[in-house]
Specification:
Blueprint lengths: L47 H25 L7 H10 L32 E8 L14 H13 L6 E13 L10 E3 L2 H13 L3 E6 L6 H6 L2 H4 L4 E5 L18 E2 H18 L4 E7 L5 E2 L10 E7 L5 H11 L8 E6 L14 H5 L7 E4 L1
Parallel strand pairs: 1-2, 1-11, 2-4, 4-5, 5-7, 6-8, 7-9, 9-10, 10-11
Antiparallel strand pairs: 2-3
């Protein structure tokens, strides 16, 4: 079975517990020492260094820009409901019309970026990444507006039976190879970066997915740290449990794992946010590169208002990816939907071809989410 390379960020010069924003492209001598995990989980010396170098350089560049960006954009992006409420009230200088309950317009319930409250209307298609870290996905390179336009074009190719919904999957918590001040082996992308991507997604009526690689930090703590974003109707969550390490484990040395029970606890937390804020359905994606990454899958329990999506992250030729898919989607619990990940570089090494939208849509069950890295 094909296995994806764990992305192994190394120590960076950012403030403790935080990574940061934006535009530098990663370079450095470590680019000559790249490596991936073998099928048995042992790192080889040929790819990991490149991934570490690009991630570290990207996160370091983010630190330099985060403070400047924060000065020009404070607080999370305004929600559609709050801005529409302001316009309905007529602004601070408008005279009060006096009490008139019968004339008060009905409150419009929050909706998904392109309308409605149920995700089954859409097929999600997106890119992932982190600014300045090319090895972590294309979303982190080039002009953000251009990337979103590319996602839009790609998404249309999947619109044979559903409407397309473009997705920006931004790494919000990034596993790293050193413990950090709290021993969490992870850094958090600063609010300024998340805000910029959220506003870009909103301009294009796209969905923002915040990806969590928890390292040794408790995954639910990392999810709760994103609450100010998750209360928005156009923000969802993605988990990368191959980066969820146990005691004594270091990200990048072996695959981490989660359990069906832990995924259910995260879904329950999101379900509470959905109920408290009357949100539309919220996606909870978990990426799975190997069967060992999610244990006791039978313990998964659907939660109201949360759509759980298992994304098969196998890597290699189309034949290898189909075999990985068949193994990972066998015996799916009730209510669990599927996703599929394509790798522009790794899937085409050795002269191989990238699976086409027609190839992906021929999979059964047909994926609800297609992500490109």
């Amino acid at each position: 079975m094909a296995h994806r390379t764990p992305r192994h960020p190394v120590p960076d010069p950012t403030p403790p517990g935080e990574v940061a924003d934006d535009t530098a492209e990663a370079t450095g001598p470590a680019a000559d020492t790249a490596g991936r995990l073998s099928p048995r989980g042992a790192p080889s010396p040929t790819r990991r260094g490149l991934l570490a170098a690009t991630a570290a350089a990207g996160l370091g560049a983010l630190a330099g820009c985060a403070g400047q960006e924060a000065e020009s954009a404070s607080g999370p992006s305004p929600s559609p409901s709050s801005s529409s409420s302001s316009s309905r009230s007529g602004g601070a200088g408008a005279p009060s019309p006096g009490p008139s309950p019968s004339r008060r317009p009905a409150r419009r319930r929050p909706e998904l970026p392109r309308g409605g409250r149920r995700l089954s209307r859409y097929r999600l298609v997106g890119y992932c990444g982190l600014p300045g870290a090319a090895a972590l996905g294309r979303l982190g390179t080039g002009d953000l507006g251009d990337r979103i336009a590319q996602i839009e074009r790609t998404a249309r190719a999947y619109a044979i039976d559903r409407e397309p919904l473009p997705v920006l999957e931004l790494l919000a918590t990034v596993a790293q190879g050193t413990a950090g001040p709290d021993g969490g082996y992870r850094s958090r992308t600063p609010a300024a970066t998340i805000r910029r991507f959220h506003r870009a997604a909103r301009r294009q009526r796209a969905l923002l997915l915040l990806n969590v690689q928890p390292g040794r930090a408790p995954v639910l703590d990392e999810v709760k740290a994103l609450r100010e974003w998750l209360v928005h109707p156009d923000v969802g969550l993605a988990l990368d449990p191959e980066w969820q390490m146990g005691p004594g484990e270091v990200p990048g040395h072996r695959y981490g794992h989660t359990t069906g029970g832990e995924l259910t606890r995260v879904a329950r937390y999101l379900s509470g946010l959905v109920a408290d804020h009357d949100l539309p359905e919220k996606p909870l994606v978990f990426h799975q590169v190997a069967e060992s990454v999610v244990r006791d899958q039978s313990a998964l329990r659907p939660q109201p208002g949360v759509v759980m999506i298992k994304s098969a992250d196998g890597i290699g030729s189309p034949g290898m990816k189909r075999e990985t898919w068949r193994r990972l989607v066998a015996d799916l619990p009730d209510g669990l939907r599927t996703g599929f990940k394509l790798f522009y570089d790794e899937d085409t090494q050795g002269g191989g071809s990238l699976m086409t939208p027609e190839d992906v849509l021929a999979l059964r069950p047909r994926p609800d989410y297609v992500m490109y890295e």
